Amino acid sequence: MDFSFLTVLHVFVLLAVSLRIFSRRSSHGTALAWLLLIVLIPAVGVLVYLLIGERRLGKTWMQRAIALQPQVLSWARRIPAEHVVPPGTLTTGAESISRLATGSVGLPLMGGHRLQLLADSEASMRALIADIDAARTSVHLEFYIWSAGGFVDDLIAALVRAAQRGIPCSALMDSLGSRPFFRSEAFARLRNAGVSIVEVLPVNPLRALFVRLDLRDHRKIAVIDRRIAYTGSMNIADPHFFKQDAGVGEWVDAMVRIEGPAAWVLEAVSLSLTALQTGANFAPPPPPRLATTGDSHVQIFPSGPQATTRHIEQLLLAAIYAAKREIVLTTPYFVPGETLLTALRSAALRGVRVILIVPEKVDSVLVRYASNAYNDDLLAVGITILHFHGGLLHTKSMVVDEEITIFGTVNLDLRSFELNFEVSLIAYDAAFSAATRALQRQYESRSQPLQLVHWRARPKWRRWLENAVQVMSPLL
After folding, report:
1. pTM over 0.85
2. What is the widest separation between alpha-carbon atoms in the chain?
3. Which of 83, 113, 220, 297 is catalytic?
């Protein structure tokens, strides 16, 4: 009798969760992965699905997101015409990318920028500190990880100095990524100095019942005086101190320093997340009057889990299909969906040189196995895979034909496409693309190419394990 009841209960739960999965219209890979997990390990699978199976931002957040979207689009339409560049001035491939970007998030192509690539964390942090020390009107920061120690302490001191001389300073910090920092002396110093701090997507056991806790704010944004901005892969963490026990070496990052109107656009993107978190009105200050500092054309491309479409994946696909000669990508985590994998293979088959640079070691065993499962498919069509040996290569970049660069916070995995708040800079600029390509060549010089014949000689058990983990990759 007990066995029959448990059997009926088991079948009922499986059917109920399965129907829930089908009702969400997830991608077929994600849906199949969840169904497989629930069938193989019912109790664990159901519990995990209830915790992280859906992009649940919570009722309040979603109500705010729905109300905020038309406000942001209305704000974007009012960007002064003198900063907007017609996409028709670009090459055909670049124009298609730009139009897709505008159609997806509403932000137009803008001109009048000077871009500077900062090739390592030390240079990035020193430049940021210098700009904060020179700030006259405002400092606004948004970073996934804040971790005290090393040059981060110098940044904290610069923020305290700015606040003490009357400069409004604010910072967004992800609740999970910056969790230890909230208990640090550095955090207390910022609070005591008057720096306004917003904890994004708070983490606590009670919220897990209503909100998916691994939806994170993965952005890296700094805006000074609404005329200078930074974005890229660097967290507020000194690689000499950060995660030294992870066994992957120091994190290797790069940032871009932007002068021009995209700075106050990045600030508005960050303020929109502030509005989502706090419920405050989305009311960015009017655009400042800025002297033209350069001739670079750029677009800002935010993405996040509140959207029903993978806008950033669509953008990457458009860039790949627009390529004529070469695509070079760097990413710490490569777990693509089938559409991105097909696009890369198609590019190689039509004669485009495709180079993928990934770290030899990453801080997730499951991600490493899932990523390795794609190597055979990529190598078989002539794609070059390089394993970087100089640490955990954390730079996220794509350079197409040394003419277009997508640079920012997005990893080539479903987590960045679906679950995280991210931001990318699209630079339609040959000089910046050449600088980024030169940095990628530096990474190449510290990397070892993966050979197809050697890869196929790996043990069968390892291939089976990689394929098994890859099946579950939509859940990683």
Report:
1. yes
2. 81
3. 220
